[in-house]
Amino acid sequence: MLTASGLSRSFGSRTLFREVSLQLGAGRRVALIGGNGTGKTTLLEILVGIHEADTGEVHRPKDLRIGYLPQELPTETGRSVFEQVMLGAEQVTLLAHRIHDLGQQLGTAVGPEQERVLAEFGEAQSRFEQIGGYAVEAEAHRILAGLGFDPEAHDRPMDEMSGGWRMRVALARLILSAPDLLVMDEPTNHLDVDSVAWLEQQLAGWSGGLLFVSHDRDFIDAVANRILELSGARVTEYIGGFADFVVAREERLEAQRAAAAQQSRQVAHVEQFIERFRYKATKARQVQSRVKALQKLDRIVVDEHESPASRFGFPKPRRSSRIVAELEDVTAGYDGDTGDEIVLTDVTFTVERGGVLALVGPNGAGKTTLVKLLTGELEPLSGRVSRGTNVDLSYFDQLQAEVLDEQRTVIDEFRTVPGVGTDGRNPRTYLASFGFRGDAVDRLVGDLSGGEQTRLALAKTLAVPVNLLILDEPTNHLDLPSCDVLEDALSAYPGTVVLITHDRHLIRSVADNLVEVRSGRAVWHTGVPDKVLYPAQVSSPPKAQAESGSSTQPKQNQGPRKQRSKDPASGLRKRLARAERDWEAAEAVVVAMQERLSDPDLYKNPEEAAAVVAEHEGAKDRAATLMSEWEKLSAQLGG
Questions:
Q1: How far apart are CA 576 and CA 570, in angstroms?
Q2: CB-CB contact of 210 with 180 (8 Å)
Q3: Using a CB cutoff of 8 Å and minimum separation of 24, what contacts does 443-446 make?
Q4: What number of CA atoms fall less than 13 Å from residue 10's CA on the CB side?
Q5: CB 174 within 8 A of CB 102
């Protein structure tokens, strides 16, 4: 059990939090929420021991194993993805390397040396089985698959991984290590909808302690059984998930408001008495008594939450045609060494004026490719992509915040948007609607938190008078209040929006329709169906484009395509079943070999033992190959 008491932390004259006390232990799954810049990350780093508090103390038992996932990771090189994940099971990894080295030594050892190596090999093999070595390797592959890694990616070098995929590797390593206390800072930032749903299932049953920061309401509600809110330099604890927290917080605020109102009435009554009898000698003692009582009175402060105004003064864009963009029978991909690499096929749908269309699906499935088709950055290999007349486009991606000038103030950076200050809008009023009020507009961009910089970049993007806005993961690094700002902004936006996000609450709140990008297809869904946002497992690939079409009616005459897609899926299912049978048989051979290797009498005959070791290594390799084939076929079929 980790306990903290009286923690306070300040930077200069600014107090992040004071007198924070909490307990973390087995069965407590705690979500830490609060605004950008309130000190959530600082508090996490103090709890895990990276930094020290100004006052207070943190007690960590000596045998407490803590796993920490920060928002930024150091670059890891020299290992494959799988090897990096297996560092989470360090004891198993070291023993596996020892067994491998001993197996190689058996090939050259003779006489007494061979007997010694065989004895060590037998002991290492027995120990490996006792600690569940083979089960750990299978678990590592399972975790990587759940976080969206294709089987081929398990052996890729870490040097080739982007920042988002490195974050997933770090998350997989932490889950595999099963620490007593798992601490995570925005774990869903780089995940897609499928991986978020998978992670929810893993953490909802987490038996150890869990503390995490997240802006994803649905994720918090599915995982947390306690909420810690950091607001006004104080931490308040609530029992239950996010929905329970919202109700309980409002009840607490109502009680505070009532108590504050009653106290105000009492103070007014006392002040009236003092004013009335201030100069009356016979009441002097009573007056002085009441004056001292008021001076000592602990005034009740209502923890009202600052909420940015939702009155957005967007520039009015010119009116576009009813059809903003249209894709018909599109096949898209990129030039490869051996020809075109196909990413999407048979894509047909229409984006109409004034709607909000959300693109969802696994990372790497083709959402970015689809965006490039809409922006005109990528030409289709076949089919037709057209944009309507008078369509003006603006694109926000995850790198927008990185191009801000850290030496400018917030308002000076905002004034770099063309037309700002000359179109009749007050820049300070506009920035206030995005949460930058009062002196906040005079802060340096470099002094803002990552979430505040993202919010400023969003404000700049939305200030441009366009009628087609494409947003790629705009909620990354935003806090809950900032997500509310974005939700209100998109609801008030006068143009058309195409949105890529893993935030299911935001999708439900603003999207009119979905396009599900998966397994080389882009399927139109009218409305926002829960089966797409909350997959119990990865959905099967679309059987045809019959579900696709415009926002007004489905595409007709899709029968032949539907028939064509049916037969391959049937063949894949048969191959998957056969691969599963072969894999199970190979695993049975591995188990049989392990039983022979655990027999002490085997090592009385060095030649027979060496032969069994070689046979065991071959059985392991075959089982691994068959497992990879099964995972590949399973991914092709969609799970």
A1: 10
A2: no
A3: 443/409, 443/410, 444/406, 444/407, 444/408, 444/409, 444/410, 445/404, 445/405, 445/406, 445/407, 445/408, 445/409, 445/410, 445/413, 446/406, 446/407
A4: 8
A5: no
First vs last C-alpha separation in the chain: 38
pTM higher than the cut 0.70: no
Extended strands (E) in 60-189: 66-69, 181-185
Per DSSP bridges, beta strands 339-352 and 323-336 are antiparallel
The one-letter code for the residue type at 593 is M
380-383 own/partner pairs: CB under 8 Å, 24+ apart: 380/327, 380/330, 380/331, 380/332, 381/331, 381/332, 381/333, 381/340, 381/342, 382/329, 382/330, 382/331, 383/327, 383/328, 383/329, 383/330, 383/331, 383/347
Amino acid (one-letter) located at 306: E
- Of these ranges, 143-152, 492-501, 589-598, the one predicted with the greatest mean pLDDT is 492-501
Overall residue count recorded for the chain in this entry: 639
38, 146, 239, 347, 350 from 520: Cα distances, Å = 42, 19, 43, 9, 18
pLDDT score of 544: 32
CB 215 within 8 A of CB 475: yes
Q: Residue type at 24?
A: L
CB 60 within 8 A of CB 209: no
Q: Is 485 helix (H, G, I), strand (E, B) or coil?
A: helix
Average confidence score pLDDT of the chain = 80
Cα separation, 497 vs 356, in Å, equals 5
pLDDT at 385: 92
Backbone angles phi, psi at 199, to 5 degrees: -65, -35
Q: How far is CA 124 from CA 113, 117, 522, in A?
A: 16, 10, 51
Report pLDDT for 502.
86
User: Would strands 339-352 and 468-472 be described as parallel, antiparallel, or unpaired?
Assistant: unpaired
579 contacts 633 by C-beta, under 8 angstroms: yes
CB half-sphere exposure, 563, CA atoms < 13 A: 4
d(CA 85, CA 156): 12
Q: Which residues are 236's β-sheet partners?
A: 229
DSSP codes of every residue in 266-313: HHHHHHHHHHHHTT-GGGHHHHHHHHHHHHH-------PPP-------
Percent of the chain's residues with pLDDT above 70: 85
Tokens coding 79? 């290992």
